[in-house]
UniProtKB/TrEMBL annotation:
<feature type="domain" description="SAM-dependent MTase RsmB/NOP-type">
    <location>
        <begin position="119"/>
        <end position="392"/>
    </location>
</feature>
<feature type="binding site">
    <location>
        <position position="268"/>
    </location>
    <ligand>
        <name>S-adenosyl-L-methionine</name>
    </ligand>
</feature>
<protein>
    <submittedName>
        <fullName>16S rRNA (Cytosine967-C5)-methyltransferase</fullName>
    </submittedName>
</protein>
<dbReference type="Pfam" id="PF01189">
    <property type="entry name" value="Methyltr_RsmB-F"/>
</dbReference>
<feature type="active site" description="Nucleophile">
    <location>
        <position position="341"/>
    </location>
</feature>
<feature type="binding site">
    <location>
        <position position="241"/>
    </location>
    <ligand>
        <name>S-adenosyl-L-methionine</name>
    </ligand>
</feature>
<comment type="similarity">
    <text>Belongs to the class I-like SAM-binding methyltransferase superfamily. RsmB/NOP family.</text>
</comment>
<keyword id="KW-0949">S-adenosyl-L-methionine</keyword>
<keyword id="KW-0808">Transferase</keyword>
<dbReference type="InterPro" id="IPR023267">
    <property type="entry name" value="RCMT"/>
</dbReference>
<dbReference type="InterPro" id="IPR001678">
    <property type="entry name" value="MeTrfase_RsmB-F_NOP2_dom"/>
</dbReference>
<feature type="binding site">
    <location>
        <position position="288"/>
    </location>
    <ligand>
        <name>S-adenosyl-L-methionine</name>
    </ligand>
</feature>
<dbReference type="GO" id="GO:0070475">
    <property type="term" value="P:rRNA base methylation"/>
</dbReference>
<dbReference type="GO" id="GO:0003723">
    <property type="term" value="F:RNA binding"/>
</dbReference>
<dbReference type="InterPro" id="IPR049560">
    <property type="entry name" value="MeTrfase_RsmB-F_NOP2_cat"/>
</dbReference>
<dbReference type="GO" id="GO:0009383">
    <property type="term" value="F:rRNA (cytosine-C5-)-methyltransferase activity"/>
</dbReference>
<keyword id="KW-0489">Methyltransferase</keyword>
């Protein structure tokens, strides 16, 4: 029977996946190896495994098939065969809003606790509304584009002609349904950047001035540098990262965006970099720090199941050490922009408190950028100004 076939495919994937690599990468290799799976098999397997992880650790005492049916019910507006056969009493309710579906699940399964979807003891950052945040896991986040204001209407039109409804969420931001195959519609991606809405909003704290010299010190492939450059094209930039291969992807993106004045270095910011940096003094530093990524798990829900909470303390220590090593290259009176895509207090407010206590910094602005109401990631950003230590 078809439903049994779907369930077997789901079970085999679940059994062979151990959470070590990102699920999308694992599935890519898995489908390549299991060529007997047709496109419909792959689509259903994808839907089931992602929905399953979105349930986090809720109702762990229920059997796996019941949990799969509950997850599929909560995450999808149309019924799958698993819901039809395992929870037939709910199969006509799949089109209801998520909130109402949660209430139905609570009625059928009184042991269901929303907070077990995000089952971590670490405290969340204070500004986060827990229930809305937990609920957001049942909705797949959107795909966001950052577009030049002049290009937004043409891009919206092209997308529409190709059957994609883009929503304008700001003067330079479009939201698209996740899974939109952009590269097939617009192969030349020179006129926009794929960047989450909350990540775009971190730019509100940058405020770069003409001819400033900024350092994007954990640059990866340069998302924040491109944002800086769009805010103020006349700046000079140093971009660095510990991973050389991530920096390799950046040249083409920068060229396409017209970002020419930059220097690139591979630097491990846990080490002493005096030899490389002794003559540098920056007008601004963006520290987009390595973190748990817990604000982005709506896109990688496997983490709700596999994340090892002990890593939060590890990241917190790393963040403090990196910050301490970069602040010495900042001019007095100039900003350090500390950013994480974490929702944990230990990586956010607690790191900022530590920075204020231990480094010559004053807090100018701090914000939890809540993406859960906008189908976006949740991020944390603080703007800290370097003060002459004698004035503190
Ligand atoms: C959150 S990601 C940066 C994302 C990037 N800024 C963007 O906008 O796409 C954090 C980066 O920190 C880098 N990183 C981790 N440990 C580091 C270290 N010890 N020194 C320098 N960079 C490090 C990682 O390689 C990773 O690329």
């Amino acid at each position: 029977m078809r439903v049994e076939h779907q369930i077997r495919a789901f079970e085999q994937i679940f059994k062979s996946y151990d959470g070590v690599q990102p699920l999308h990468r694992f599935l890519f290799a898995y489908f390549k190896k299991n060529k007997q799976m047709g496109s419909s098999d792959r689509r259903w397997a994808n839907r089931y495994i992602y929905s399953f992880f979105r349930l986090g650790k809720a109702l762990m005492k229920e059997d796996q098939l019941t949990r799969l049916a509950i997850a599929d019910f909560l995450c999808n507006p149309t019924p799958g065969l698993v819901v039809e056969t395992t929870l037939p009493e709910l199969k006509d309710q799949t089109g209801l809003p998520v909130k109402e579906k949660i209430t139905l699940i609570q009625q059928h399964f009184p042991a269901f606790k929303l907070k077990e979807v995000f089952n971590f003891k670490e405290q969340l950052s204070e500004a986060i509304d827990e229930l809305s945040f937990f609920e957001s896991y049942f909705t797949q986040p959107d795909l966001f584009l950052r577009v030049k204001a002049n290009d937004i209407s043409q891009l919206t039109k092209t997308l529409k002609e190709n059957g994609v409804e883009a929503i304008t969420v700001g003067p330079t931001t479009l939201a698209l349904p996740n899974g939109t195959r952009l590269e097939q519609i617009i192969p030349d991606q020179k006129h926009f950047q794929i960047q989450d809405l909350s990540s775009q909003k971190t730019g509100d704290l940058f405020d770069p001035q003409t001819w400033d010299y900024w350092w994007d010190c954990c640059a990866a492939s340069g998302g924040k540098s491109l944002l800086l450059h769009d805010l103020q094209p006349n700046i000079q930039l140093l971009v660095s990262d510990v991973r050389e291969n991530s920096l390799n992807n950046l040249d083409e993106r920068f060229r396409d965006a017209g970002l020419k004045k930059y220097q690139k270095k591979v630097l491990d910011l846990l080490l002493n970099n005096e030899v490389d940096l002794h003559h540098y003094e920056f007008d601004g530093i963006v520290l987009d720090a390595p973190c748990s990524g817990s604000g982005t798990w709506g896109r990688t829900p496997e983490m709700l199941y596999y994340f090892d909470e002990h890593k939060v303390s590890y990241f917190s220590k790393l963040q403090k050490n990196i910050a301490a090593n970069v602040v010495k290259y900042l001019k007095d009176g100039k900003p350090l922009i500390y950013i994480t895509c974490s929702v944990f207090k230990k990586e956010n407010e607690e790191v900022v408190s530590w920075l204020l206590e231990n480094l010559p910094l004053k807090l100018e602005r701090v914000e939890v950028i809540k993406g859960y109401g906008n189908k976006a990631d949740t991020m944390f950003a603080a703007r800290l100004i370097k003060a002459d230590a004698s004035n503190l």
